[in-house]
Amino acid sequence: MAFPKKGPGDIKAGQMVSVTVLAEGPIGVGGLPPLTAQVRIPVERLRRGPTGHRYAIHIRKWRGTTVSPVSLTLQGDPWHLVSQVPPQDLRELLDDTRFLAQHVYGVAMSTLDIFESTLGRRMPWNPEGRVVLKARDRVTATETGYERGTNVIRFGSVDRMGYKVPTALYRDIVAHEVTHAILDGFRPAWADQLATMEQLAMHEALADLVAILSVFSSREVVFRQLEAAAGCFQAGEVVDDDLLLRSLFDFARDLFARGPLREPFVGAIPDNWQELPEPHARGAVVVGAVLRAVQRLWSERNTRFGDHQSLQQKAESGSIVATRVLRMVIRGLSYMPPVDVGWRDLLRGIVAADLDMVPEDNYGYRDAIQAEFSAIGIRRVSLHNISGVDNYQGLRYPIRLSALGSDPQEVQRFVWENPRLLDAARLERRTPLSSTRVRTSERVSPDGFIISEIGASFIQTVRMSRKEAYVRLGLKTRRDYVDIRGGGLLRFDAGGRLVYAALKPVMDRERQGLLFGSDQHHDAEEAASSGVRDKFHGTGE
User: Which of 251, 302, 342, 464 could form a disulfide with 468 if both were Cys (CB 3.0 to 4.6 A apart)?
Assistant: First the structure.
């Protein structure tokens, strides 16, 4: 039957279950079996496939195109997921269709869960529906990737040790591609036809960071890296900062060696890195900065606990720091504008969100991230008026609170009835907003209370003739028309008061002039980004 009669029994909302996945990939170090890890994921009803509410896993047979559906649940009970350990032998592991499905489902669900549990809201897809993960598809390794507009993620195979190894068995690759799908549903304009290279680079950097830090949050993985790095040290030598940095970046490079992830910059940062004509290369610089912040915070945590710690304890510290920084990055996304985001928007979002979450930064997490971003040329964010609302004193609040959390029209009305806010957004008065989204979220404050907030984003796209673009914005173009846009993010507290604003003014001559540049600049960006705009594929050869 399509809908079995058996109910969930005593399953409660929010209940979690542990699932065994490969901690890194299917090939162990030094001939040893691969490391495994336990991920906690929400309980849901699963059909054969496996197919749940958010994902459908398709696994093609090794020969042909036939999909081989498998069941991950107890027979007759679609609510009871049964987690199995992987085979020890590599050949058996690669032939184990059931474990492949379990691994892909577990990693995909845990990646989605860390976004939803951090942001306190459901993450939509673009378009709505299920995301289909083709875990053993007939594509090359470099064609592994998320395809916009289809809700499909394809995973090819790589040749290793004489075997064809599905890229879907690598935890970081699954997390990377699922992150692209999550970001595309959360902020579609970051990768649409009007997105610039900067937004595409942001997509790649965030996907790499989620992939690296989610894997590095596993204590087993960190311990193995420390063991490998310490192996070249003489007996009695202290596990110092150099070893921590080496273990973290060696780990990132090991992921990069498989192809789909980029190697973070560890040497001199190119002066013109923000102008590199390839989004993956730009993003790698920011990935390196965040990893250096993780290393700094990890080292400081070890110092607080003293040199008597074992490698296991140091590994646990590393996993704790990685998890905290990962959640900081994810939480910062809900404080960023819906269009035209840059690296300083990312930094401001991370700092502002963490400031709301943890007012007292006793261990210097925000300062470490600010310092590393500053080292690559991204200016520090001032804490003075970081919310941006001091600029809009005396706002009128003729809003209906119940409607504010669900009705985009109420948000548009709020903007319209506050001319100071309207002027700051520089909206084109004759053109309606092209998109307004309202999302409520909940988080737990440090004092244990639940805080409810409302996030509202709006976008305006204006099509202008060549003459109008020049007269109103100073844009010089040979095109018959140009599309320009802007928008903003507004966050309201539980009482409906504006507490945060991040705006990208629409009719702003300076901003639009920098974005558009010239016809040559515009054409070059479009050409360089066309290969990844619809398909977020790896660039490995």
Answer: 464
